[in-house]
Design a protein that fits this description.
- The protein is α+β, with helices and mostly antiparallel strands.
- It has 2 domains: 57 residues, no CATH class; 114 residues, Nuclear Transport Factor 2, Chain: A (Roll), CATH 3.10.450.100.
- It is built from 4 helices and 10 strands; from the N terminus they run E-E-E-E-E-E-H-H-H-H-E-E-E-E.
- The strands form 3 sheets. It has a 4-stranded antiparallel β-sheet. A 3-stranded antiparallel β-sheet has the order 1-2-3, with no helix packed on it.
- The radius of gyration is 17 Å and the shape is globular.
- The relative contact order is 0.14.
- About 9% of the residues have low confidence.
């Protein structure tokens, strides 16, 4: 079970009742839908009411795929992705490569990564807003070794592209830490 915690008038966080872990903040206007793992939450807000928004939890209807138990790994992967994205948002592409997963470093030379990230940023412009949308676990990724991956999705607004879908793939490393091994904006 999750409860709603307002982070600001236009943002909220979800708090797991048993563990106390916070997810978010998430942006909303009048209502929002947030997915954590395979559970979807609908945040209902009446713009005219001074009452806090209501949370409606929709558990998954199908059996979940194989995944890391609990939310600790999921939270760690999302947090690692957010830290990495903050580095990329500051145009520190070389540092982003240094902090990326070994798989990314082995498949893309540093100068190529820096060049491609710079070209993408030049075309799309600076980050305006990023809103967490969903996270999903997988043991496999196309053309990548078997492992533990989280696919983390955001709705993103950039200066030259107001509505974009941004995907980060985080892979658990041998030391147990989560690091980014893929980044795509479309």
């Amino acid at each position: 079970m999750y409860t709603l915690a307002l982070a600001a008038p236009e943002a909220f966080r979800l708090k797991a009742t048993k563990t106390g872990k916070l997810f978010g903040p998430f942006d909303y206007s009048h209502s929002a839908t947030v997915t954590i793992g395979r559970v979807t939450f609908e945040i209902l807000r009446d713009a005219k009411s001074k009452q806090p928004p209501k949370v409606v939890e929709t558990p998954p209807t199908n059996s979940p795929p194989e995944r890391v138990p609990g939310t600790d790994a999921e939270t760690a992967a999302v947090e690692a992705a957010m830290v990495w994205l903050a580095t990329i948002d500051k145009d520190e592409f070389a540092k982003g490569w240094d902090e990326a997963a070994l798989y990314l470093q082995e498949t893309m030379p540093k100068d190529e990564f820096v060049s491609s990230q710079g070209a993408m940023r030049d075309a799309l412009g600076p980050m305006n807003k990023r809103t967490f949308r969903a996270v999903e676990f997988s043991n496999t990724m196309p053309a990548a070794p078997r492992g533990k991956y989280y696919i983390i999705q955001f709705t993103t607004s950039l200066e030259n592209k107001r509505h974009a879908e941004e995907t980060i793939v985080a892979k658990q490393q041998e030391d147990g830490k989560w690091r980014v091994c893929g980044h795509h904006i479309r």
